[in-house]
Amino acid sequence: MIEWSEHGEPRSALWRSESGAPAPRRVQPADDTLPADTAYRLACEGTVLLWRGDFQNARQLLQALMRRADRKPAKAAARAAQKIAGAGLAERFHLHRQAQAQRARTLGALLIPVEGDYSIPLRRAPDWRAACTEAWGPADGQASVVALRELLGIVGAHEWRKKGVEIPALGSAPGNRIHPHYGVFSPLRGEYIDLVAQAPLPGTGLAFDIGTGTGVLAAVLARRGVRRVVATELAPRALVCAGDNLRRLGLLGRVELLAADLFPPGRAPLVVCNPPWVPARPSSAIEQAVYDEGSRMLKGFLAGLREHLEPGGEGWLVLSDLAEHLGLRSREELLGWIAAAGLRVLGRQDTRARHGKAQDASDPLHAARAAEVTSLWRLGAASL
């Protein structure tokens, strides 16, 4: 719960935070009379602002806070640049993550009240009850408070869910869209999907898809002719999302969804896994699709793959080498884990990164992103 005082009386409401951040302790009601400079100073000092004014003015204030967060004083910018220039690759990455986290905390200081039916009790507030229901589940009548920035993310996810993401590997439109749910990583980067769509299949009888997420790779395998796919997932949101997508695509009869941490029971001639690519701590549930502290899922997949492969079967590890360019994992470490798991490399297919950040020279991690290669590693059991 979040607690504050307003008009001399104690107030409280349910605190909502996708990142699991603790409820703030310093809460100050604010309205249209609050100057942006004052709001930014309070946010930097750790005071959150519970908005009581016009909703559209709150959106404008958030934009003003963003401009101030991105406009560093010359001396501070020079010190930060000097610190980054003298840092190693891994340290640069962690400094970048720290800066991102600090910016997120500052911009997350503008809070919006939400009624028990998910309506917003502010002037000119939009009706976002459908988006909130998708993210939080059915309304339970309890008033809550959420950061405006997070609320905007919920609405953005709602729009993506309605529109869907076109996946050429699933065939022609309109039956080739994946609809990501809130909190489930969207398959906007198509290179890893294309690798799975193009690699020669070792068989078409059965495949396991480990950590299916939206269900996109399971759907690609089924559309390629694999008669039965068992797709596992641990996150409840992702299981619901995958089920929705497979139903839309007419593939529920060929893809079985299973709540499991990594592997289903049994063996298969093909086992596919696209684990998080960067060994770092995620800051929210959706970041778990990208960041995995200690490479837990990658190591777990490699360690258990051999006992879930049929004789002569293949494990497809779909992995970016971004972590290698960031100094967070070496190629030698990866090959060592493969060998230690009793596996051997049968082949590898590579593709260059095509996303926008790979071409953005202003990105602090541009050098690593520009060099990034995504690979499909074909793994088999090593000879005893």
Structure explained in plain terms:
It is a single chain. Strand 9, helix 8 (216-223) and strand 10 form a beta-alpha-beta unit. The strands form three sheets. The chain has a seven-stranded mixed beta sheet with strand order 11-10-9-12-13-15-14, sandwiched between helices. It contains 13 helices and 15 strands. The termini are far apart. The model has no long low-confidence stretch (mean pLDDT 92). Helix 1 (36-45) crosses helix 2 (55-70) and helix 5 (129-136) packs across helix 6 (148-163). Helix content is 36%, strand content 22%. It has two domains: 2-160, no CATH class; 165-381, Vaccinia Virus protein VP39 (Rossmann fold, 3-Layer(aba) Sandwich). The protein is α/β, with parallel strands linked by helices and 384 residues long. The chain is globular, with a radius of gyration of 23 Å.
Class by helix and strand content? alpha/beta
Write down the Rg. 23 Å
As residue ranges, the low-confidence spans are: none
| Biggest pleated-sheet summary | 7 strands, mixed
CA distance, first residue to last residue: 57 Å
Number of helices: 13
Strand order of the largest sheet: 11-10-9-12-13-15-14
Which range best describes the helical content: under 10%, 10-25%, 25-40%, 40-55%, 55-70% or over 70%?
Answer: 25-40%
Number of domains: 2
* CATH architecture annotation of the largest domain: 3-Layer(aba) Sandwich
- The best one-word shape is globular
Number of strands: 15
Strand-residue proportion: 15-25%
Can you tell me the CATH superfamily of the largest domain? Vaccinia Virus protein VP39
Q: Give, in order, the helices and strands.
A: EEEHEHHHEHEHEEHEHEHEEHEHHEHE
Q: Report the average pLDDT across residues.
A: 92
Task: Please name the CATH topology of the largest domain.
Answer: Rossmann fold
Using the coordinates above, name the CATH class of the largest domain: Alpha Beta
